């Protein structure tokens, strides 16, 4: 097998910088174990010069949030004709904007919790309390309130009572200018990773998430022991297949490539409700994609080496 030179991009300036650095370190180690010549590059003002003066065979993106998932870095790599593992820039933008992605999923007949997305200016112009009351009257309680863009559950809160809503909104708006409020769906939370490492896309075994506090928030995601994971999820075979089919449909509908992760809830009626779709799944020691890779009988370095080869082949 040809030894490839791979630049792992991590860090950046988003709220998720520290998580991204952890993902990058783990991915770099996995690729080295698989025989790659790995360079670990932070995403800063030197990136373009590095790519031009010392071009790698391919780039593997371990960025979370901001430019790493909204298509900006991907667009620069496309401009420079640098092969990379991951989704093309236009599809990144679709998936990154949660209301846009939810609307496309809903139009295609996939289930996603009912929602409304409103910018901060709307609350200021029309009166915050009046708009909040209308929101609760339409969607009911409990609600999930989160930024319309971003990941790692930053700024996300479950609202059980009307009185909790203003504080949740303030916290949410600290991470973005638009609030996405959706019906909170009780059920089994599951993450399904999809990879394009062969002739066709395939879903890895779904990972069931059991958060100690009942909500899979930032603390539960990145604190060892704060959540328990089961892979494959403790669901019947029919539901497991439905989860895999749903994630594959979302991956293909949104035009994603190489690797993605669909977060969903199986409700009391057995319906799969898609919460969001991620183009740059976490790779930390508590992240869900590595669990699914192991459950599929693979190593992380093996998977990403195959994705690197596909990226090089696309060029």
From TrEMBL:
InterPro entries xrefs: ATP-grasp, ATP_grasp_subdomain_1, D-Ala_lig_Van_CS, D_ala_D_ala, Dala_Dala_lig_C, PreATP-grasp_dom_sf
Catalytic activity: 2 D-alanine + ATP = D-alanyl-D-alanine + ADP + phosphate + H(+)
Protein name (record): D-alanine--D-alanine ligase
Pathways involved: Cell wall biogenesis; peptidoglycan biosynthesis
Alphabetical list of PROSITE patterns matching this protein: ATP_GRASP (PS50975), DALA_DALA_LIGASE_1 (PS00843)
Enzyme Commission number, as recorded: 6.3.2.4
Organism this protein belongs to: Pseudonocardia aurantiaca
Coiled-coil boundaries: none
Keyword Ligase in annotation: yes
Pfam families on file: Dala_Dala_lig_C
GO molecular function: D-alanine-D-alanine ligase activity
Location relative to the cell: Cytoplasm
Function: Cell wall formation.
Domain ATP-grasp: 102-309
Family: Belongs to the D-alanine--D-alanine ligase family.
